[in-house]
Amino acid sequence: MNLKNLIVIAFPLTILTACGNGTTKYDATGTFETTEVVVSAEASGKLLSFKVDEGTQLKAGEEVGIVDTLQLYLKKMQLEASVKSVEQQRPDILKQVAAIKEQITTAEKDRNRMRNLVKAGAANQKQLDDAEMHLEVLRKELAAQGSTLNNSRQSLTWQSSSVGIQVAQVNDQLNKCHITSPITGTVLARYAEVGEFTTPGKPLFKVANVNEMYLRAYITSEQLAKVKLGQKVTVYADYGNEERKTYPGVVTWISDSSEFTPKTILTDDERANLVYAVKIAVKNDGYLKIGMYGGMDLKSE
């Protein structure tokens, strides 16, 4: 999803007061805009559902459409089956070594009996050495078998973890098939239709929070000294024919660099060819529209 601020051509900074016609003089003028978000697809596939129309009111996180998930779902089932298969191959070490442990227990008894027979003179030293050797061989076999089983178990654990990560990836892809609105706002444009094939990055619709508007205007370097962040100002929405509405506004942004005055802008001093862009936040009462002409008075009412 890409955030895109509507860039508009600023109207005259200052309207020169006409002699005897009562035209209002503003400290700065510009147009209203808002933050727009173009929502793009994050998955490839056929658009199965898309409940979006221009003017639709959406809430943040609200689902508005879905991309075909069949192949991803089948892949997830296959991976989950692989996880079960790996888990079934995991060896039960205790059961695997139980038999050789029994042999070791028996060999220890035989060795102890042979040791007693040697002390009693009923057996020779070679028989005792053979019993000791047999017991040592069994112990080494137990250690080797335990090491092999542990390595096999660890390998299967890594394999299961790897498949688990793939399942998580598929789950993420499935989630991205569900199209949601990133913000609470109004749909401004729709770019796709149900049944179309979509790909990651393809724009689907544009949404904007029209309840929070901004007046983008330009001020001269002389006016810059009179403006600061958080300053309350008066904003006017001009409907033409001398009809206008007044709104309280707050300066939320001042450009940290100047730019050349557009040729279409008039200023009190034509030599002031460097200006600074400012944004004034305004609460929309439903009458403000994107691109509407407005003015700003540094004095708040």
Query: How are the strands ordered across the major sheet?
Result: 2-11-15-13-12-16
What is the molecular shape?
elongated
Total of helices: 4
How many domains comprise the coordinates?
Answer: 3
Query: How far apart are the termini?
Result: 39 Å
Q: Kindly state the number of beta strands.
A: 16
Radius of gyration (CA) equals: 39 Å
User: Within the CATH hierarchy, at the fold level, what is the topology of the largest domain?
Assistant: Elongation Factor Tu (Ef-tu), domain 3
Please name the CATH architecture of the largest domain: Beta Barrel
Strand content: 25-35%
SS class: alpha+beta
Secondary-structure element string: EEEEEEHHHEEEEEHEEEEE
Q: What does the largest sheet look like? A: 6 strands, antiparallel, barrel
CATH class of the largest domain: Mainly Beta
The CATH superfamily label of the largest domain reads Efflux pump adaptor protein, beta barrel domain
Helix content: 25-40%
Query: Regions with pLDDT < 50 over 5+ consecutive residues?
Result: 1-23
| Mean pLDDT across all amino acids | 83
Short description:
This protein is an alpha+beta fold and 301 residues long. Helices cover 35% and strands 31% of the residues. Strand 12 and strand 13 form a beta hairpin.
Features:
4 helices, 6-stranded antiparallel β-barrel, Elongation Factor Tu (Ef-tu), domain 3, 31% strand, alpha+beta, 5-stranded antiparallel beta sheet, OB fold (Dihydrolipoamide Acetyltransferase, E2P)
Overview of this structure, please?
The protein is α+β, with helices and mostly antiparallel strands and 301 residues long. The chain has three domains: 1-34 and 210-301, Efflux pump adaptor protein, beta barrel domain (Elongation Factor Tu (Ef-tu), domain 3), CATH 2.40.30; 38-67 and 178-208, RNA polymerase II/Efflux pump adaptor protein, barrel-sandwich hybrid domain (OB fold (Dihydrolipoamide Acetyltransferase, E2P), Beta Barrel); 70-176. It has four helices and 16 strands. The chain has helices spanning 70-89, 93-120, 125-176, 221-224; strands at 2-5, 28-33, 35-40, 45-50, 57-58, 63-67, 178-180, 185-190, 197-198, 203-208, 212-220, 232-240, 243-254, 259-260, 274-283, 293-297. The chain has a six-stranded antiparallel β-barrel with strand order 2-11-15-13-12-16. A five-stranded antiparallel beta sheet has the order 1-3-10-8-5, with no helix packed on it. A hairpin with a 2-residue loop joins strand 12 (232-240) and strand 13. The longest helix has 52 residues, at 125-176. It is elongated, with a radius of gyration of 39 Å. The model is unreliable at 1-23 (pLDDT under 50).
